[in-house]
From TrEMBL:
General function of this protein: The glycine cleavage system catalyzes the degradation of glycine. The P protein binds the alpha-amino group of glycine through its pyridoxal phosphate cofactor; CO(2) is released and the remaining methylamine moiety is then transferred to the lipoamide cofactor of the H protein.
Superkingdom in the source lineage: Bacteria
Natural source organism: Labrys wisconsinensis
Protein name, as recorded: glycine dehydrogenase (aminomethyl-transferring)
EC number(s) per entry: 1.4.4.2
SUPFAM superfamilies documented for this protein: PLP-dependent transferases (SSF53383)
Keywords: Oxidoreductase, Pyridoxal phosphate
Oxidoreductase keyword on record: yes
InterPro entries: Aminotrans_V_dom (IPR000192), GDC-P_C (IPR049316), GDC_P (IPR020581), PyrdxlP-dep_Trfase (IPR015424), PyrdxlP-dep_Trfase_major (IPR015421), PyrdxlP-dep_Trfase_small (IPR015422)
Length: 522
């Protein structure tokens, strides 16, 4: 049974489920056990000769028990990890609408350049004299980041967005201490529409956090912010465009008020992809802003791999840039070698950032050019507004039908009295082959659904996504609760207790207890 797109319908899928298989597999949807359940502890896929009678250099650190890893043949190992990869969802699998995350396509050209000899094999302990090309890449990327943001300095060492956020706030703290106000300015203002890491970063550095409410239109309440300013305020941490997907139209007024109070303006750069080539944060009065290279300049996103979160700094904070940093073609590693007037706050990490991420980001910039990066921002905003206009008649917009930036925010008011929650709706999207959007964030609206399509998607891709969400929304409104209550039905695993998994993770496999003969007989 096929639907209008020529695909198996829900009834067709149910018919397939009525035909069990011996293996538990469903055609190419293979039920993959753990390595410990496949392999054996007494075998290995590699023949290793026993070591000779040589003295150990490990002392009391030498292993006394078996390592306990199962042995598999090479084909078994390859199949296992390939099958696991097929159960994962990534930007190469389909549209990834996570709001506030900017899950955009990573061009393969970037990957090819990052694997070039001299980049891929550069080692952080090489003599600086042997890596002039790497230094040139870092310097050129830093130059473009300063050009795009209108800021005079940039710290390239932070490893990711949150690390960069910490770096920017450490520079602010160092600047305040240099003015002799470290014991006085202890409060950081954080709007309700900011990213969730902002208050955590401020608290980590010993600041007290004071929330600033948003107005009914989803932007910062400037009057309330002014009332909160005073000699005790060190900085404001604001995201622009904010996490509601809206541009803070009063940002210049906010910056002027913050500076007049002697404080600093930290801007969360996670949403920079919406304004590259259109607005320079430095022109708006920003003092520090981290840049997620994965969100804006297409380096790989997540997965625990290497990241990069450069931080651009205003002239007020430029002297406090951390070590090490590249100056022209030199690597400055010691404060004594820094230019006159520079007072680095220290180091964020031992070495100069992530070479692979720098190379990928620079490749993206050079292949797109200034006009291409500006068009990417325009297309990202256009895509989000296309989704807003296409779903606004069925799904409720908490801040009215006003244009959004790179992401569109819906709430759950339209689900009232249906018996269906935001989580139910998100889980039903999995059955349709989509990763859910970001849900229940930002916290300023109830039952939030935050969708960010990025510029990567074609109109055909967006249209199918819109039609799918419209079909789900209509099903919810007509009371088809069964479609949602048990979803996902077709994923390798059904709905999980995610809260319990986060709070009580099981990180170690243990062999099941053997069944006793008496229990087996019963």
């Amino acid at each position: 049974m096929l639907n209008r797109q020529g695909r198996p319908s829900a009834a067709g899928e149910a018919a397939v489920a009525d035909h069990p298989t011996f293996t538990g597999n469903r055609a190419l949807m293979i039920e993959e056990p753990l390595l410990f359940e496949v392999g054996r502890l007494d075998t290995t896929g590699v023949d290793v000769e026993a070591p000779g009678d040589v003295p150990s250099r490990l002392g009391d650190l030498e292993r006394s028990d078996p390592i306990g890893l199962p042995g598999l043949s090479e084909p078994e190992t390859m199949r296992h990890y390939v099958r696991l990869s097929q159960k994962n969802f990534g930007i190469d699998s389909g549209l990834f609408p996570l709001g506030s995350c900017t899950m955009k396509h990573n061009p393969r050209l970037n990957e090819k350049v990052a694997r070039m000899a001299g980049f891929a094999d550069a080692h952080p302990l090489q003599p600086v004299s042997t890596v002039p090309g790497a230094l040139a890449v870092i310097e050129r990327l830093a130059h473009y980041l300063k050009e795009l943001t209108g800021m005079p300095a940039v710290a390239m060492t932070p490893k990711a967005g949150a690390h960069g956020e910490l770096c920017g706030m450490m520079a602010i703290k160092n600047a305040i201490a240099a003015r002799g106000e470290g014991a006085v300015r202890t409060v950081v203002l954080v709007p309700d529409s900011a990213h969730g890491t902002n208050p955590a970063t401020a608290a980590l550095l010993g600041f007290s956090v004071q929330s600033i409410p948003v107005r009914p239109d989803g932007t910062v309440d400037v009057a309330t912010m002014r009332q909160a300013l005073g000699p005790q305020v060190a900085a404001i941490m604001l995201t622009n465009p904010n996490t509601c997907g809206l541009f803070e139209r009063d940002i210049v007024e906010i910056a002027e008020a913050v500076h007049a109070a002697g404080a600093y303006f930290y801007c969360d750069g996670a949403n920079f992809n919406a304004i590259v080539g259109k607005v320079r944060p430095g022109d708006l009065g920003v003092d520090a802003m981290h840049i997620n290279l994965h969100k804006t300049f297409s380096t790989p996103h997540g997965g625990g791999g290497p990241g990069a979160g450069p931080v651009v700094l205003s002239a007020r904070l430029a002297p406090h840039v951390p070590l090490p940093f590249v100056l022209a073609d030199r690597l400055i590693e010691q404060a004594a070698d820094a230019p006159e007037g520079a007072t680095p706050f220290g180091r964020m990490c031992a070495f100069q950032g992530q070479m692979g991420m720098f190379t990928r980001a620079l490749t993206y910039m050079l292949s797109h050019g200034a006009d291409g990066m500006r068009q990417a921002s325009e297309d990202a905003v256009l895509s989000a507004n296309y989704i807003r206009a296409s779903l606004g008649d069925l799904m409720s917009l908490p801040f009215g039908d006003q244009p959004c930036m790179h992401e569109v925010l819906f709430d759950d008011a339209w689900l009232k009295d249906t018996g269906i929650t935001t989580l139910d709706f998100a889980k039903a999207m999995i059955d349709e082959g989509y990763h859910p959007m970001t849900v229940y964030f930002p916290l300023v609206v109830h039952g939030a659904m935050l969708i960010e399509p990025t510029e990567s998607e074609s109109k055909a891709s967006l249209d199918l996504f819109v039609m799918t969400l419209r079909d789900l929304a209509l099903a919810a409104k007509r009371g088809d609760t069964e479609r949602f209550a048990g979803a996902p039905y077709h994923a390798p695993r059904r709905r999980l207790d995610e809260t319990r998994a986060a709070r009580q993770p099981v990180l170690r496999w243990r062999a099941p207890e053997p069944v006793r003969e008496q229990e087996a007989a019963e």
